[in-house]
Each structure stands twice: as C-alpha cells, then as structure tokens.
Amino acid sequence: MNTISHTATTQTHTPPAEAGLDQKRQALYDNLRRTGRLMIAYSGGADSAYLAYAAHLVLGDEMLAVIADSPSLARADLRAAIAFADSHSIPLRVIKTNELADPDYVRNDRTRCFHCKDELFDVMADIRDFPAVAYGMNLDDIGDFRPGQKAAVQHNVLAPLAEAGLSKSEVRQLAREAGLSVWDRPASACLSSRIAYGLPVTQETLQRIEDGEAFLSTLGFRQFRVRHHGDIARVEIARGELEQTFSLSVFDRITAEFKRLGYKFVTLDMEGFRSGSMNSMLSSSFLPASEIGRKPDNTHPHADEEAR
To answer: In a designed cystine with 164, which of 27, 87, 118, 233 is the match (CB 3.0 to 4.6 A)?
Structure first.
C-alpha cells in the first residue's frame, strides 16, 4: 500500500460549532491555502465537485482533481464530471483503477468500499507532483457506515470539508451560492453498491445495472436505484416520483426493458428510493471476522459514494 506524506493535518483550522456558513467557508479556504499543492479525489458528486472548485479557487494550478475511470462508474456520471471540471477550468486527470482484479473487492462483502478506496488512493499516490490528497467527506459522514473512510485514514488523506465543519446541506448551499450546477445533484453511489452483498461484482452485472438506470432516466425519473438480486431487479424510485410509475403502460415498459437486460423478475420497491437500503441485508455471513457484531449505520439521510 502506498501512503501519501504531508504535514498539513496539524495546521488545519476548525471553526467553533456555532460558526456561521461564511466562517466555515473561510476556514475551508484557509485550510486549503495552508495545505498547498493538493490532489482532490473527485467523483463529480456535490461534495467532491465543490471541494475541487474551492481548491481551484484558492490554489489555482497548484491543485489537481483526479477521477477514476472505473467499471463501477456509470459513463454518464464520468461525462458529467469531466464536463463540470472543464466548465470551471479545473485541472483534471482521469486515471484507471482495476478493483475488479482484486478478489476481496469482487467478493462483495461489507469491506468492498474499503478495497475500492484503497485501490484509488494507491494509484493517486503514484502521482508524485502533489504531496497531499483530499476527498469529499463532510461532517455528516463522520460515524456513518463507510469503510472507505478507513482507507482514507490509512493513506493519510485529508477531509477539508469535515475539518471546516461543513455538513452535507451546507456544502450544497455553498455550491448553490457559487452558481454550481451540482448543488442539487442527487447522491449517486458507485454501481457496485447496487449489488446485493454476497453476489460477486462483475463487469456484466455492472453494465446491466448501468443500462437499467439509463433507461429509467429516459422515462423522466431523477432519483432511483436498480438493486441487483441475481435474477431479480428491485427498482427503487424516490417517493415523490413513485406515483409516475402507477400505470400499466409504465409497468410494461420497465418490465420489457429489464427482461431484455437479462432479469427474470422485475419488482418495484413500495418503500421507494432510500440510501443504504442494501445494508439491511448484512449478516455475519457477509462480514470479516473482525467486523462480526458491529452494527452498520444505514440511517443517514445524506448518503453519498459509499451508501448502497
């Protein structure tokens, strides 16, 4: 494992809990300035996009956004992330990661997200021009069930948004005030997070999920997930949009498309879209021995890249 060396962690400024949004934004800017040359682990979501925008605002060309072109990243999300960086002249490098070559990742137990982030930070550590790496963890993420945070700690990765005391809603508010198009973008975990624990992560399954979600987008839905349970596709659609599905013609279109993709059964989840729903399936059979007995937190309302 390659680790990133930096000396910035002891110099960060955390504003008091009662600090206002302007104070927190300034604390973020100050911390970024103190850190100096910096890479941002960038996904195109609201958190990492705002962090990349702020870092570029403060550091200019002394920062670099890095996005992984991985099989678990939908092509539409990759294109959108590249377009956002280009529209704000944010330096961007697209790298290749190969987590599908890691049996621990493919096995898809509770630690899958750790192995994904471990691979990402390993590859980023090979970019020697930047001594520090940061990612988009916000204050709300602390304490959530997010194994990728463990990988970040092991690789000495910084979390400037959390260090500045910024919550998810505050990051979105700052992005809105800055006129960034991502301010209200729905959270979007990687495609692997749609696969039920214990079922292997494969290129074929990831493509099937991506194609299914692309189809739902053409129907006008905005927030949804295709949950893969082997022969069963369980479709979650945000409750505010769920009523749009309540017609036989929509049922027939969804069923026909998902059966074309290879599913034998297609179900619509009556609870609607909810972040972390796959975590309810966790049992000791999906956990490494060191994790048995630990209860995951799958209740957080602002789940992001690691929420299933």
So the answer is: 27
Q: Per-residue pLDDT tens for 223-273?
A: 999 999 999 999 999 999 999 999 999 999 999 999 999 999 999 999 999
What residue type is assigned to position 89 of the chain? S
Q: What is the rounded distance in angstroms from the CA atom of residue 237 to the CA atom of residue 299?
A: 18
**Measured between alpha carbons, how far is 205 from 211 in angstroms, rounded to an integer?**
10
Answer for the pair 172, 151: CB distance below 8 angstroms, yes or no: no
Cβ density class 93-116: b for 16+ within 10 Å, e for less = eeeebebbebeebebbbbbbbbbb
Pairing state between β 63-69 and 92-96: parallel
> Which residues of the chain are in CATH 3.30.70 domains?
191-274
CATH number of the 8-184 domain:
3.40.50.620
pLDDT: is 123 or 295 the higher one? 123
Q: Is-contact 54 83, C-beta < 8 A? A: no
Q: What is the pLDDT of residues 268-290, one digit of tens each?
A: 999 999 876 666 666 544 444 44
CA distance 250 to 218: 12
**Residue 151 phi/psi, 5° resolution?**
-65, -40
Of 146-155, 197-206, 223-232, 271-280, the range with the lowest mean pLDDT is 271-280
Question: Can you tell me whether residue 103 is helix, strand or coil?
Answer: helix
Q: The CATH number of 191-274 is which of 3.40.50, 3.40.1350, 1.10.3470, 3.30.70?
A: 3.30.70
- Grouping H, G, I as helix, E, B as strand and the rest as coil, residue 46 is helix
Contact 4, 133 (CB under 8 A): yes
3-class SS shares of the chain: helix, strand, coil, % to 5:
50, 10, 40
